[in-house]
Automatic annotation (TrEMBL):
Protein name: C4-dicarboxylate ABC transporter permease
Listed PANTHER family: TRICARBOXYLIC TRANSPORT PROTEIN
Pfam families cross-referenced by the UniProt entry: TctA (PF01970)
Domain of life: Bacteria
Transmembrane segments: 12-33, 109-132, 144-160, 167-184, 196-213, 320-340, 352-376, 388-406, 469-486
Length: 498
């Protein structure tokens, strides 16, 4: 207890506290602007931290990280444009809620869910970090392969009305993810002689095009010259039904657990946690058909799940030196900049710094309640009152600026345009877009893991199923694929005339 008491005293000094408040507000703003993301913001911040106190620098990282993960829900709910990759699942029910005049309620649920998920994740980091970090030692390449396949299968099957189209979309994303240099053999694949393709297609560029451009084109189609009135937006009057908040508690508990477990696994990420939490909430619901049509449970599950991944991803990073995601890798870089060596000895050599960073992840999650909710409802929600014709060029400018500053290449703008047009036509034929992105994220992970597993076993494919954990994951994947098929056959049997 003395460990955290001393760390808390250091964190609540004016410097770290001010850094956390300012960075949390900045993070919400970054997440709310399409095309910007926490990875970009933290990467730009790192060179500026050389002369800073380590606790101030890490407090800014924690604030930007937690704030932007919530901020991504704002455009996801108001405009159906995910501000971050992890907020894709928030669009499924958040935007339909806003569309029927419940934007304020959706933003409040997203704010509370983000804070609860972040707090639960920080508590897990503080109390169960060393114990949970040891669990990752039991996961080998075979387990990571099945985790990736399970993620793609579950999203491909659960999202959208047609499981076949969902699986096809996941395969498309998997194919896109193979472009570039093969990490194991060093061979270039599907680059067509273009040097800019050697690193593959940038995920953020494709994400912005695939998810931001189709809604912009649809806004242009509507030719909205008026926009929503304050009465239509109903930001000040969004009462909750009796027992509605209490009904969200099981979703928060379930999603927090899923997000924490996903965060501990290196390479997974908040997007996977959000999708798995959303699917779990849908499967546990008495009315699964309402998901995707404005069910508050869907918003709560997605936001709580993706924020519960935040601090949990730091568990293997701080204790083992293995980053759980890109942001965790940037945190390790920040520690290295200040002459610290991540790993088991970090807890013994720098207890105040490690404990302080854990407390900063907790405090910035708590700040989301006050700062995030205020910004969301009083400032960013007002974007919906602008006429659609004004939103179109504004969003396009933000998209182009955000995409260009990632790599400083004009070709990324063309990739964004191609991805956006593809997403626009895919939506016209009812092909879900989420599996495409997840295929891009998990495809390389699945490929590298299965090849490593086969190298270790000298080509014996049965090794993928002989370990208990990999066999259990394989069974879960099979059940996810077979479940909708069985449900479809059951519905056909009931519909068949006697």
């Amino acid at each position: 207890m003395e460990f955290y008491t001393n760390a808390l005293t250091s964190v609540l000094a004016w410097g770290p506290l001010g850094a956390m408040i300012g960075a949390t507000l900045l993070g919400v703003l970054i997440g709310a602007l399409p095309g910007l993301n926490p990875v970009m913001a933290i990467a730009l911040l790192l060179p500026l931290t050389y002369s800073m106190d380590p606790l101030i620098a890490l407090g800014m990282v924690a604030g930007i990280y937690n704030g932007s993960m919530y901020g991504g829900a704002i455009p996801a709910i108001l405009l159906r444009i995910p501000g971050t990759p992890a907020s894709i699942a928030t669009t499924f029910d958040g935007f339909p809620m806003a569309d029927r005049g419940e934007a304020s309620k959706a933003l409040k649920i997203a704010c509370w869910s983000s804070a609860i998920g972040g707090i639960a994740s920080a508590i897990a980091l503080m109390t169960m970090g060393p114990l949970l970090a040891r669990l990752t030692l039991f996961f080998g390449p075979a387990e990571y392969f099945w985790i990736a396949i399970f993620g793609m299968a579950s999203v491909g099957v659960m999202v959208g009305s047609d499981p076949v189209k969902g699986i096809m979309a996941a395969v498309l994303g998997l194919l896109i993810g193979t472009m570039g240099i093969d990490n194991l053999s060093g061979q270039a694949r599907f680059t067509f002689g273009q040097t800019w393709l050697l690193g593959g297609l940038d995920l953020v560029v494709v994400l912005v095009g695939l998810y931001a451009l189709p809604p912009v084109l649809q806004l242009a189609e509507k030719r909205d010259l008026v926009g929503l009135s304050s009465g239509q937006l109903k930001l000040k009057s969004a009462p909750f039904e009796k027992g509605e908040i209490r009904g969200l508690i099981p979703t928060w508990l379930r999603s927090s657990g899923i997000g924490i477990l996903v965060g501990i696994l290196p390479g997974a990420g908040g997007n996977i946690a959000a999708f798995l939490s959303y699917n779990a909430a849908r499967n546990a619901s008495d009315d699964p058909a309402s998901f995707g049509k404005g069910n508050p449970q869907g918003v709560a599950a997605a936001e709580c799940g993706n924020n519960a991944d935040n601090a949990a991803s730091m568990i293997p990073a701080l204790s083992l030196g293995i980053p759980g995601n890109v942001v965790a890798a940037l945190v390790l870089s920040a520690l290295t900049i200040h002459g610290l060596q991540p790993g088991p000895q970090l807890f013994h050599q720098n207890p105040i710094l490690v404990g302080g960073f854990m407390m900063e992840m907790l405090i910035t999650s708590v700040l989301i309640f006050a700062l995030g909710g205020m910004v969301a409802t009083r400032v960013f929600a007002q974007f919906q009152r602008l006429p659609g014709v004004l939103l179109v060029p504004s969003i396009l400018i933000l998209m182009c600026v955000g995409v260009y500053v990632i790599n400083g290449r004009m070709v990324d703008l063309w990739v964004m345009l191609a991805a956006g047009l593809a997403g626009y036509f895919l939506e016209k034929v009812n092909v879900p877009l989420a599996p495409v992105i997840l295929g891009m994220i998990l495809g390389p992970m699945a490929e590298q893991s299965v090849r490593r597993a086969l190298l270790i076993s000298r080509g014996d494919a049965t090794e993928l199923l002989t370990r208990p954990l990999s066999a259990a994951l394989a069974v879960m994947t099979l059940l996810v694929i077979l479940w909708p098929i069985a449900k479809s056959l059951q519905r056909r049997r009931k519909a068949k005339p006697v």
